[in-house]
Amino acid sequence: MIEAISKITLYVNNQAEAKSFWLDKMDFVVSFEQTMGPGMTWLEVAPSRDSKTSFVLYEKELMKKQNPNTPLTHPSVFLTTKAIETIHTTLKNKGVTVTELMVYPYGKMFTFYDQDNNPFLLRED
């Protein structure tokens, strides 16, 4: 039986730029980082050290060489918070592209974009 979602791979143009985005602008932490051979680093980032789910930041060009049939489109990713207005303002102040905060009967949400212009939805239920 599946018990949890453990990792989501984000295919990025530049691993160092993606790492900087997630650490410096989103306040994530490196949850795992290990050299896997020449020119390859396995890199995971997460909201905190004890997070059960992490993003694997994997370079698109490297995956194209390893497995040309892997689809490199961006997954739909939902993140959760209890302080959406504060995060919305903070991300805007850090220069992150964000949409307007949307308010619905079931919760508040907005989309933000990473360094490669991939969208992420942040929700407060």
Automatic annotation (TrEMBL):
Q: Which residues form a coiled coil?
A: none
Q: Short name of one Pfam family for this protein?
A: Glyoxalase
Domain VOC: start-end pairs: 4-125
Q: What is this protein called?
A: Glyoxalase-like domain-containing protein
Source organism: Anaerosporobacter mobilis DSM 15930
